[in-house]
Amino acid sequence: MAIHPIRIVGDPVLHHPASPVTAYDEALRSLVADMMETNAAANGAGLAAPQIGVPQRVFVYSCADATGRIQRGHVVNPVLTTDPIPGGLPDEEHDIEGCLSVPGEHFPTSRAALATVVGFDEFGEPTTVVGTGILAVALQHEVDHLDGLLYLDRLVGRYKREARRTVRERGWRDGELHSWLPGSIPDPFGH
After folding, report:
1. Which of 37, 105, 122, 142 is an active site residue?
2. pTM, whole model, 2 decimals?
């Protein structure tokens, strides 16, 4: 297993849809193990393969559901369904979201309260994950990564303007390669 650098907003791999996984082999199992280790080292709620530069439809998660119970796992080739996403501006206190590919930043983001992902495990066996609370947010967030979207793309109003300004000030430009290596620098989220 290995900890991989996490790509930062602007890296082209984060802004294009990932390809479906076609082989459930040792390479996939190694990828999943590396992603779990990288996510743990980064104190992440989830990590999608494009975030470590691999354009495949795989993500891992490790976060609490609405009951506070920690859920861990992975999904290959996920298909997401959700409850309706609330309209209007998200709540500044309760709808805060962050991303390992936007290190150190948080912005209010509207997400559905219930999310279901259907896909496969690393051996090609069917799996379903139903999420509420932070897990629901993580499932939606990670599938967005696989579709070539960052949570910044979901922001509205003043939050969208603030995020654009932050990205510009941090020097994260489209087409540029930036990354950070969990464990080698201080945690950008202060965990």
Report:
1. 142
2. 0.93
